[in-house]
Structures are given as structure tokens and as C-alpha cells.
Q: What sequence folds into this?
């Protein structure tokens, strides 16, 4: 059976440039739509976090004013049905990436607090990339790529990718006090950054690396991941 490892941030706060904190976590849509699609495709999906900490779902991602009451209800039901998995994730430090066919990283602002600098995240990504295993990340999930480093530097330099854009961060209202901006940081590390219209679905594939721009891109990214694994 095809095995997928979904790495979730363990952060529930984002430390801002002025030292204040912003409540955050995992963006529900990005976890749920990907997880649901992969499981429905017949894949085995394991969850892991730094320290094996139960991840926090960003409250904004379940706000009925943002996603509507019907979607919010469906998401809450899915989270409740998968509470045992979410409350008992694997410990990221214990993960052997050779046991998985793909590494998937949802966003929310959590990854820009912890995954971007997590040494085990970096270790897993380097080994997975060296073995040409599928790596997929959406929205702020590509921040995890920044944790990777090998003897030649950043292994994703020169690769085509996307993420939550600086323009979207500005429109969302979180750019002004951000300690750093994700798209800008990826460019500075050497990524060939691509983007579509703000808030539209946009997916980039470069070999074994698949990335989605924002929450709206999750469904299309999931389809691309499933297609690539099949």
C-alpha cells in the first residue's frame, strides 16, 4: 500500500516581529481536503508533528464568516471523526522517510513558527528528495522546505515552486508585523518562485516537488499528488 506521511506544525502561536504572538496552527481546509482525498484514494496516511504534540487547528479556518456554516460544520465533523489520529501523531524525530512514498505538509501560519527551522523536518526532506520521493506542500507549508540543508546548501535551490504569496499575506493583514515573508524568503534561498492570481487555485510541479499557493489550491494539489503516486 502507498504510504504518505503528513507533517503538521505543533505551533499554536506565531511570534511576530514586535515579540507579540498571533494565535495560529493548521489551516483546516489544507489538512482536511488533502487527508480526505489521500485516504479515499486508498493510501495509508500517517500524521507526525514535532515532539508528537497534538496539532492546533487555526480557529479562523473554522470561522463561519470565512468559510460558511455548511463547510464549517463538515470540517468540524471530519476533525471529530479523526480526533484519535490528530491527538496521537507520530514524533517527527522518530520518522524514517524511507518508509514512506510521499511527504505532505499543510499550511496555516504554524509552519513559519516551527517547521521552517526544525532539524528533523530538514533531515526528512533531504532524504526524501535524494530518493526522489514525492514532496507536496501548500500555502505556508513550503516554509518547511527552508529547514532542509545538505553538503551543497539548500537542496531546493533552482526548483520551481509556489506558496502563500507576499501579496496575499498583505491582503490577509499579517504582513506588516511578520518577522519574515515566506515567498520572499523562498526567493532569497534560490527558489524559482511562481504565482497565480491572489486567492485563486495555483499548483506548481517540478519533478518530485509539488506545491500549492493557498488554501484554495489544496484540492488541485491533492489531485496532483494522487496522480503522481499512481
A:
Amino acid at each position: 500500500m502507498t504510504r504518505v506521511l503528513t507533517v503538521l506544525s505543533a505551533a499554536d502561536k506565531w511570534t511576530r516581529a514586535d515579540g507579540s504572538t498571533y494565535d495560529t496552527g493548521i489551516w483546516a481546509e489544507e489538512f482536511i481536503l488533502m487527508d480526505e482525498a489521500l485516504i479515499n484514494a486508498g493510501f495509508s496516511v500517517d500524521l507526525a508533528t514535532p515532539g508528537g504534540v497534538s496539532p492546533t487547528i487555526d480557529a479562523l479556518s473554522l470561522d463561519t464568516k470565512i468559510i460558511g456554516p455548511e463547510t464549517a460544520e463538515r470540517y468540524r465533523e471530519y476533525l471529530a471523526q479523526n480526533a484519535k489520529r490528530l491527538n496521537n501523531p507520530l514524533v517527527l524525530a522518530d520518522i524514517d522517510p524511507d518508509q514512506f512514498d510521499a511527504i505532505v505538509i499543510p499550511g496555516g501560519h504554524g509552519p513559519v513558527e516551527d517547521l521552517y527551522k526544525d532539524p528533523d523536518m530538514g533531515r526528512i526532506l533531504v532524504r526524501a528528495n535524494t530518493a526522489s520521493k514525492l514532496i507536496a506542500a501548500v500555502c505556508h507549508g513550503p516554509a518547511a522546505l527552508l529547514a532542509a540543508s545538505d553538503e551543497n546548501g539548500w537542496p531546493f535551490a533552482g526548483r520551481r515552486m509556489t506558496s502563500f504569496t507576499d501579496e496575499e499575506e498583505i491582503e490577509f493583514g499579517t504582513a506588516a508585523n511578520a518577522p519574515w515573508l515566506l515567498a520572499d524568503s523562498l526567493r532569497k534561498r534560490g527558489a524559482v518562485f511562481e504565482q497565480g492570481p491572489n486567492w485563486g487555485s495555483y499548483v506548481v510541479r517540478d519533478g518530485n516537488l509539488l506545491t500549492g499557493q493557498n488554501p484554495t489550491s489544496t484540492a488541485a494539489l491533492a489531485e496532483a499528488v494522487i496522480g503522481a503516486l499512481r
In short: Helices lie at 28-40, 64-67, 69-81, 83-87, 119-130, 166-172, 182-189, 218-229. The chain is about 30% helix and 15% strand. The radius of gyration is 16 Å.
